[in-house]
Each structure stands twice: as structure tokens, then as C-alpha cells.
Amino acid sequence: MADDVFKALADPTRRRILDELTERNSQTLFEICARLTTRHGLGLSRQAVSQHLTVLESAGLVISRREGRYKFHDLNTEPLKHIVSRWLGPKAPESTS
Q1: Is 27 exposed, middle or buried (0-12, 13-18, 19+ CB in 10 A)?
Q2: Of 1, 7, 26, 44, whose CB is crowded by the most CB atoms within 10 A?
Q3: Is residue 96 pLDDT above 60, yes or no?
């Protein structure tokens, strides 16, 4: 699972999508596309953004839910918490400065 998370985070567009979901959760594909275009100057097709969302969802970083004809995307930080605890868990030594 951690490999999927690292693969998903390796792409700068997917990191921007996560940034947008951090700022405002529960966005539709249309909203995410609009924010990527207006805020980051990325002219990606809806299909390209949808493929990025599929990778993020496979890694567990995004959870999607349907409400009527709309599909909303939410950030899920649990996979990141597992990675952080792997190296920075309770047994990690404190840094000395």
C-alpha cells in the first residue's frame, strides 16, 4: 500500500489535486478541473484529471462518493499517517540540535 501512496505522490499534478482538496474538500470533477486551470494554469482535460483521481483513489488518498448524478471527491489522510508513523513513530529518536 505504501508503494501506491508514493507512486501517487510522485506526480506534481496529483499533489496539486491533493492541495486543492486540502483547501476545499468534497469537490466534483468539474470543480477540481476549474481550480487547476484558474489557480495553477493547468489545461488538463476532464479525462486526464479523472485518471489522476483514479490513481489517488487506488492509493487510498481520495475517497469518492456519489450523490445523485454528482460524484464528490474527499481527501483521506490515513495512508499518509501510516507512512509518517513508519519513520516517525513513538520509537523515533529525538533530534539533537
Answers
A1: buried
A2: 44
A3: no
Q: Is residue 71 part of a domain?
A: yes
The CATH code of the domain that includes 83 is 1.10.10.10
Q: What angle do CA 46, 1, 6 make, to 5 degrees?
A: 60
Number of domains in the chain: 1
- Cα 3 to chain centroid distance, Å, stands at 15
**3-state DSSP percent of the chain in helix, strand and coil, to 5:** 60, 15, 30
Is the Cβ–Cβ distance between 73 and 26 less than 8 Å?
A: yes
Looking at the domain assignment, is residue 55 inside a domain? yes
- What is residue 3's predicted lDDT score, i.e. its pLDDT? 87
Q: Among 52, 7, 70, which Cα is nearest to 62's? A: 52
The mean pLDDT of 22-49, rounded to a whole number, is 96
How many other CB atoms are found less than 10 A from the CB of residue 87? 7
**pTM for this structure?**
0.85
